[in-house]
Amino acid sequence: MAIPFLQTVLVGTYVVRQRLAGRKRYPLVLMLEPLFRCNLACAGCGKIDYPDEILNKRLPLADALHAVDECGAPVVSIAGGEPLLHKELPEIVKGIIERRKFVYLCTNALLMMKHLHKYKPSPFFVWSVHLDGDKEMHDKSVCQDGVYERAVEAIKAAKALGFRVNINCTLFNNSEPERVAAFFDTLAPMGVDGITVSPGYAYERAPDQQHFLNRTKTKELFRDIFRRGNNGRNWSFSQSSLFLDFLAGNQEYHCTPWGNPTRTVFGWQRPCYLLGEGYAGTFRELMEETDWDAYGTGNYEKCANCMVHSGYEATAVNDAVAHPIKAAITAMRGMRTTGPMVPEIPLQAQRPAQYMFERQVKEQLAQMHGAEPLKKAAGR
Ligand code: SF4
Question: Which parts of 48-88 fold into alpha helices (H)?
Answer without folding.
Answer: 52-55, 61-71
